[in-house]
């Protein structure tokens, strides 16, 4: 396990399409709880830090992090790049894995592949979204803290500060980027993230139909998700 790295999980309660989604029930846990439980199974990083905002509205997330036994960092709600950099600096991380908190079906094996790409080649960013061949909701980005510091020093544009890695991908001439991809288009247009009420209902159904929600790989999750339609089984957990 790398001692200078962590998973930084980004979450806040103020989602416009699905407010409070991070703490919505999902099986015997909550959405964010499943994200954390699946990240605990990765091989290269064992530290998990929740990076939320300094808004009072996100106090329940800080409390949840404490209940989960993970560290918590609080920063600006909109300057997500700045929040990640401040978090990485405070916890003395040389690199981190950026994970969205609305990804309860993140695949630990896929995260490991991206980490291995970073550890082998040491780029500024190792990713599986440039270009994206994995489903939305199975995204992992390893970011070198020094590279993020350069990004934050280079641009104050809120479009880039809010979306963290977009500036990297648009400026490959000054940042080194390595991508991990599947060899075909099997996941084209597929999302297993939770962003809307319909996504949440699907996630509840999928959770209930997986062989094991804690260990199911992305292949099984996508296959199960494709069977959801609200017709053949109304049972939810």
UniProtKB/TrEMBL annotation:
One of its GO terms (cellular component) is cytosol. This is Acylneuraminate cytidylyltransferase. It comes from Hwanghaeella grinnelliae.
């Amino acid at each position: 396990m790398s001692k200078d790295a962590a998973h930084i999980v980004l979450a806040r309660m103020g989602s416009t399409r699905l407010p409070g989604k991070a703490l919505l029930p999902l099986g015997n846990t909550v959405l964010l709880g499943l994200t954390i439980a699946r990240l605990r199974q990765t091989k290269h990083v064992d530290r998990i830090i929740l990076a939320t905002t300094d808004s009072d509205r996100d106090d329940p997330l800080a409390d949840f992090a404490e209940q989960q036994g993970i560290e918590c960092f609080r920063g600006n709600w909109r300057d997500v790049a700045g929040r990640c950099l401040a978090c990485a600096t405070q916890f003395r991380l040389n690199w981190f894995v950026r994970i969205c908190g609305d990804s309860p079906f993140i695949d630990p094996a896929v995260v490991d592949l991206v980490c291995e790409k970073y550890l082998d080649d040491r780029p500024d960013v190792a990713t599986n979204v440039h270009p994206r061949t994995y489903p939305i909701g199975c995204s992992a980005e390893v970011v070198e803290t020094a590279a993020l510091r350069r990004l934050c020093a280079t641009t104050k544009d809120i479009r880039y500060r809010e979306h963290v890695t977009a500036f990297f991908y648009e400026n490959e001439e000054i940042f080194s980027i390595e991508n991990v991809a599947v060899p075909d288009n099997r996941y084209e247009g597929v999302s297993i993230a939770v962003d809307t009420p319909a996504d949440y209902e699907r996630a509840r159904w999928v959770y209930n139909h997986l062989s094991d929600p804690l260990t199911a790989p992305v292949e099984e999750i996508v296959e199960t998700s494709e069977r959801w339609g609200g017709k053949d089984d109304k049972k939810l957990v």
